[in-house]
Amino acid sequence: MNLLSIGGSDPSSGAGIQSDIKTFSTLDVHGLTIITTITGQNTTNFGMVEPVSKKILQNQWESIISDFKIDGIKIGMVYNSEIIKTVYQNLKKLNIPIVVDPVIKSTTGGMLIKKSAISDFKKFIIPLATIITPNRFEAEILTKTKINSKNTPEKIAKMIQRMGAKNVVITGVEIKNKKVSDFVLEKNKKYYIVDEKISKMNRGSGCIHSAAVLYSIVKNKNIKKSLEFSKKITLNSIKNSKKVGKGIEITNVDKQDKLKIKLLNSINELIKIKKIYQNIPECQTNFVYSKQKPKSINEILGISGRIVKAGEKVIMAGDLAYGGSKHVATALLTINKKYSKIQSAINLKYRKETITKIKKLKLTTYDYDRNQEPKNVKNKGSTIEWGIKNAIKNSKKPPDIIYHKGDFGKEPMIIVFGETPDIVIKKILKMI
What we know:
The protein is of the alpha/beta class. The protein has helices at 16-26, 54-65, 81-91, 118-125, 136-143, 153-162, 205-220, 223-239, 257-272, 327-338, 352-360, 375-378, 384-392, 421-431, and strands at 2-9, 30-41, 46-51, 72-75, 98-100, 131-132, 167-176, 179-185, 190-196, 202-203, 249-250, 287-290, 300-303, 306-310, 313-317, 320-322, 344-349, 365-367, 401-404, 413-418. Strand 8 (179-185) and strand 9 (190-196) form a beta hairpin.
């Protein structure tokens, strides 16, 4: 995936282009950039603003478009009318997701758009937006209307939507009972996204939010899920913000979230596989990914619910959480003790045709017979550890597949193993 950020340069890497690149990198996608403006700023103050010329702005665009397939675009700082009109001319005919983050003022007080350019911003940039992500202050500037009991978030969002944005999210519209609410207006529905309020001054959370929104919209196509995902990423970045300069802390996307992001990416890939519903067992499916050398299932990421069948589709029912899986996580934990590079696994429905194909592919395959389980193991109720140990006790190579044919009241099962979730997906694509 290639995501393009169009915006201003922040030498302190707290916001702007640099923040977007860090976020894209953490989300494991390639970030492209077009710089509209050079700023001089740090964590304590805001200095100069120098917009780039139309000539170099256009050349940046031509360099990118001639060499890369762009999957989505984020528009941040567009300082003056010339920049705004140039960006519009290049983007107006594109049919890809565009997230507009209407940055107006930096945390350290600098103006990020000329007042004389705001009308052109509304005329040319807002209509490009698949979704626009103003905070409360920015929404009030754009509409020249204060949010209050008379002018509700819905009324303000509708005013922005009438400017041309397809979807609107106004962040931080209400802070109450240690919760912060974002108001969302889609084409045919409206709702709030509510989460914890973190009382911590920071730089860059708005940039991280809009960059994560773009990533998730390109990946998932669903507005609500994308906003919920980006909200979690943003809150984590605020929690993990660091005082790297003398002033305001800079947000930091939690590196541990890379596990969640990689697993979520692979779950989304799994869901897209044609007829994958035929491979979901009656007990449903879990997909897990562990930290290095996990000591317990609490260090293994899984789905707190399951991946379940919904007609001829599958959906993820539940959230990603450490300790979210017991059965598949225990299987992975057992394997990892002998083969530490194996950090991911998924359970699939046992099908004879699948086993036949696996053997033709010459994948490293082991099995065990649940009829041979000792009574004391059966009485414990969870026999997966015994089964996996039994399957690999004489093995010399890490498994691609371990399966069993079931027992009385026990469903037969296939478990696919790999170093990472994306490798597990590659094996599934070969075998089904």
